[in-house]
Amino acid sequence: MTHDPLLQARHHLRQLIRNKRRALTPQQQSTAAQNLVQQIIHHPDIHRANNIALFLSFDGEIDTRPLTEWLWSQGKQVFLPVLHPFSRHHLLFLAYRPDTPLIKNKFSISEPALDVTQVLPPQELDMMFIPLVAFDEKGERLGMGGGFYD
Asked: What are the tens digits of pLDDT across the range 116-140?
């Protein structure tokens, strides 16, 4: 652990918020996931987007399954992040369909098995939904601290 006060404060804040979200009841989590879908359905950009990246929920994150199912029902192509096998702190985005087999990565997060025929370059994504721990009043994201989405 570093002795940088700012980094220590960010680490403490991450832990505090992660603990709070893990304490949400299943009903609160379900309601939040449904509210997210309703907000996205009414966002004008979602209807123009075809290639959409999102994440599979982990560690108390908002449940993305309802959103994923809605995207599939709209004929959208969904992509999941996969840890790059050779480039540390980089992600690849692989196609995700209802029948896509998933494996656990080194962080125990489910992801599609690497198949280069299913990779989409990030610049071809129309929209990305990325995980976060929290955001501030300016909308600045506080992630998990790994730098994968920076």
From this structure: 999 999 999 999 998 877 777 787 7
**Distances, alpha carbon 4 to alpha carbons 7, 9, 11, 59, in Å:** 5, 9, 11, 26
Binning pLDDT at 50, 70 and 90, where does residue 144 land?
A: low
Question: Residue 87: phi, psi to the nearest 5?
Answer: -115, 100
CA dihedral 89, 136, 69, 119 (to 10 degrees): -20
- Strand partners of residue 52: 78, 127
Which 3 state secondary structure label does DSSP give 102?
Answer: strand
